[in-house]
Structures are given as structure tokens and as C-alpha cells.
Amino acid sequence: MGIFDVGKKSDIIKNEDAFSYEFVPKVLPYRENQIQEIANAIKPLLYERKGSNLFIHGAPGIGKTASVKWVLRELEETTDEVVPIYVNCWNLKTKYFIYTDIANQLGISFTAGKSAEHVLHQIKYKLKNKSAVFVFDEIDKIENSNFLYQILNVTQKSCVHLISNNYNYILRIDPRIKSRLQLRSLEFKPYSLEEIEGILKERVKLGLRAGAINPLLIKLIANVTHKKGDVRVGLNIIHEAAKLAEYEGENRIKKEHVDKVIKEVSEKKPEEDSLNKDEHLILSAVKKKNGAISGEIYKEYVSKGGKLSYKSFKRYVNNLERLGFLKLEKTGGGFKGKSTRIYLKS
Ligand SMILES: Nc1ncnc2c1ncn2[C@@H]1O[C@H](COP(=O)(O)OP(=O)(O)OP(=O)(O)O)[C@@H](O)[C@H]1O
Ligand SMILES: [Mg+2]
Predict the structure, then answer these.
(1) CATH code where residue 91 lies
(2) In terms of domains, do 89 and 150 share one?
């Protein structure tokens, strides 16, 4: 038998897409109120009035991105006059990259080699006489939020929605921009156990063949997910257990598959699932050189294939400290001046 031989055709997973984190289902239960609030903030733009700017916040994996994307999709189906723009700031370090992302969405080509201001000018021109909703997701990953000032002036009628799982981000915004934005706060509260179970059941219907998993197993997975707080954990357990069962040639997910996947998940730290590749690399570099100064950890990170500049690396380290993965300790002025020791937080 060859290594790629497929024993039996898989018949547990019906739609793999339903388990991707980007998937936005047609119905988003339990977020009706937040969805309505987001829509209300945008609605005035439909009547050529100004919309409201929002700061959307709450813990990881509780439907902030999904709700906003849901509203933008609905908006797109309702009108051509209000242009929805969604930018995930995770890997966009400077305003040049943000503007280029927006320009691409608007179908503006030839931005390479142009200045940020030039690209912004093209965006302004493209949006002339239109209204726009700008969503900046994971806004806390951006070093400098001053670009928001320019965004506010792109069109007369626009609104800006910022999303973050870190409430303290708001404290870091320049007071001038804050006062200009007049942000209204929209909090997403964690889901209850019943809500998580409801969400997982719905997703199972979309992703798995009917009868492929026993409702008691979904309850068990909902319990684990509720403890972690992040819906992605549950989606991931179901997906992995389904793949494992298929791999073993079963046509239903059994308790042993779920137990095995849950065991792996519970060995991870709470938010580790939502970290990106560089953050994982940084954590593994710190694991290797726990307590070393940041320059040494950076070298270890680079030797593992990390590509961030030292400046960005430090920004990521600060973020990992905020998320509770790392502990930082400033050392007294040594031979080379002050430096920081980095420890894993147990
Ligand atoms: N009410 C819901 N109904 C269906 N699926 C949901 C619901 N809430 C969250 N999800 C799903 O859970 C996953 C995580 O949700 P989402 O990406 O919106 O989290 P988030 O709050 O933006 O988290 P983060 O702060 O980490 O970005 C997504 O796959 C999303 O589709
Ligand atoms: Mg999100």
C-alpha cells in the first residue's frame, strides 16, 4: 500500500470550509444586539449623514470579527453607495501597508514604489462622492494610530470601527485623535456555556454529515470551550476529531477521538491558538533561553527562521507580555546600557 493510498472515502466532514476561522455563517446566534448596534452606527451613511465611530472590544474568539463581517456583507448586498472596507492590521506595520491594502480592495493598482500619501490621495479620489465604512481589526497591533486622522478626512461621510481584544488599546490612542473620533464603546461579553453549545451545534450541521457526532460529545466539547472562552477552541476540536475519525476509517466521531484531541488542547496555554507564526517562534525562542536579555532571544528567534526586525520583535514581545505569556524585567544599566530580560510566564 502506498503512503498516499486513501483507504476509504471520507464521509464525516461534509464542508471543510465551515471549520476555517474566516468562515462567517449566514446566521450568527446570540450576537443580534451587537450586530444591530454596528448596523445603527453605519445606517446614517445610507441617508448621506455621518455615521458613528465605534471601539469594539472583548475577549478573543467571541464573535467580534464575525459580527462586523456579517454586517459588512449585509451592507454590500443592500447598497453600492456605502463602500465597506475591512482591514486586518495584524501584519500591516505602517500606514503605507494599510493604505495599499485599502487601495487593493478598491481596485486601485500600481501602488508599488509610491508614497503612503500618494496612495491615500488615490483612495480619496476613488471614494469621491461616496460614503465608506472603514473597519480596522486587531488595531492594537499597529504601532502608531495617527493614520486614523488621515482616514477621517478621506470622505465627508464615513465611519471608522476599531476592533481589539485589548481594552487598554484605547488608552494608547493620541488624545487629539480620540477626541476627533468620539468613539462609542461596544463591548462583546463572553458566551455562556449554553450559547457555546448552540454555536457548536449549528456549525456541526454545516460542517459534518448528519449523525456524525453524538450530541453528548458536543456538550463535552462545549464544556472545554467554555473554560477557554474562545469559540475557535471548540471548532478546532470538532474539526480535528473528525479528521482523526476519518483517518481511522470510522464513519462517526467516537469519544476516544474527542478525548485525544482535548488532551492536546488542554496542554496548550489559553490563547496560544490565536497566536501567529512569529509569536509562536518568539515563545519557543524564550523557552530555549528563558531569562536571557532581549538581544539574545532575538538572535535565537532569527536562528529559528524569524524575519521580524528587532524593533517589531520588541513590539511583539510587549504584546506577548500583555497577553500574559511573558514576563519582562528591566536590568540596571550594564556595560551596554539598559536591557530587558525575558521570561516565560508559567
Ligand atoms: N455567535 C456565533 N455564531 C457562530 N459562530 C461564531 C459566533 N461567534 C463566534 N463564532 C465563530 O468563532 C470563531 C471566532 O470568532 P471571531 O473570529 O469573530 O472572534 P473575535 O472575537 O474576533 O476574536 P479575536 O479577538 O481573537 O480576533 C469564528 O470562526 C466565528 O465564526
Ligand atoms: Mg477577530
Answers:
(1) 3.40.50.300
(2) yes
Give the residue, by CA position, lying nearest to ligand 1 atom 28. Answer: 21
The ligand that comes nearest to the alpha carbon of residue 22 is: 1
Ligand 1 pocket (Cβ < 6 Å) reads 21, 23-25, 28-31, 60-66, 165, 199, 231-232, 235, 274
CB 83 within 8 A of CB 133: yes
Q: Which ligand 1 atom sits closest to the C-alpha of 21? A: 29
Q: Distance, CA 208 to ligand 1 centroid (Å)?
A: 19
Q: Which of 125, 156, 187 is the last residue of a domain?
A: 187
Q: What Rg value do the Cα atoms of the chain yield, rounded?
A: 23
In tens, the pLDDT along 99-138 reads: 999 999 999 987 788 899 999 999 999 999 899 999 999 9
- Separation of alpha carbons 147 and 135, rounded Å: 13
| Residue 137 shares a structural domain with residue 165 | yes
Domain that residue 102 falls in: 32-187
pLDDT per residue as tens digits for the range 248-279: 999 999 999 999 999 988 776 656 666 788 89
Q: Kindly state whether residues 81 and 225 are assigned to the same domain.
A: no
Task: Please give the full DSSP string across 141-206, using - where no structure is assigned.
Answer: G-S-TTHHHHHHTT-SSEEEEEEES-TTHHHHS-HHHHHHHTPEEEEPPPPPHHHHHHHHHHHHHH
- Domain identity same for 219 and 322: no
Of 206, 238, 266, the last residue of a domain is: 266
Residue 83 lies in a domain: yes
The single residue listed with the C-alpha cell 455621518 is 50
Ligand nearest to the CA of 60: 1
Give the ligand whose atoms come closest to the C-alpha of residue 230: 1
pTM attached to this predicted model: 0.80
Number of domains making up the chain: 3
Kindly report the protein residue whose alpha carbon is nearest to atom 17 of ligand 1. 65
